[in-house]
Here is the input.
Amino acid sequence: MNKIIACIDGSVVTSAVCEAAAWSAKRLNKPILFLHTIERPQQHGADDLTGAIGLGARSNLLKEMAQLDEQRGKLALSHGKEMLAAAVERATSLGVSVDEVEQKQRHGDVIDAISELENEARVMIVGRSGEDHESNHIKGKFKVLGSHIESLIRTVHAPLFIVPATFKPPQNFMLAYDGRTTADNAIEKIIAGGLLNGLECHLVMVKNNESAQAEKLASAAARLKGQGFKVTASLLDGNIFDSLLGYQQQNNIDLLVMGAFAHSKIRQLFLGSNTIRMLERSISPLIVLR
Here is the structure.
């Protein structure tokens, strides 16, 4: 767990991913690995001519299609190398030593590529929308998740740092807390991780039928304060999603921290669906802990 692995694809969020990677690398004193994965695009409709081959098409059609695929592959490879070089340049311009920046290019599925590198990851950084979703940034609000985000949340066990189209170094963060063991584990990860040290913490719990919520919230706040965090603890009424989003907006929260999917359906109601909804509606970066 020694690297900040940042995934880039040339979309509008690539610059923000580079900036978040540089910020994380300097705070954790870890090197950066920029990863670009070349995925084979899906063929649709007229682009997929394979069905015509058996209908009397000449053999040179197969040759032309193969040449076209080869040309596309070379262009994608060249474009990816340029993106990686630009990412390295951006990171070094933000104060990361060039000796502390690596780059890697892979062919295949991006989830597989990321999973293969997970053992090397201290933090994994991805953009909230990919190159196929740029039109979904409408008036600053994100409407549709990048095609791989939910799969990444379910697959990756390292902390996942998801950034929108712009990034600024956060001054505070909000931790969605529900008083259960996994939420306490998230607090321990925050304390041990070091990435958020020195940032003001807003510890937020939404009232439910669980017992002793106020006591659990106070205990969690004391744990963070004991480790040097400045903590504002709040117990909110109302719908979980609306309460969290409203608190974030009212208090100018720079960074969200939430738990990911758990095994039980009850846990998913709090940590699963609401994580995705916060991603869809929030314009702030979000760190997902598992």
Remarks:
- The chain is about 40% helix and 20% strand.
- Residues 172-282 form a domain with the Rossmann fold fold (CATH 3.40.50.620).
- Residues 59-93 form the longest helix (35 residues).
- The two ends are 15 Å apart (CA to CA).
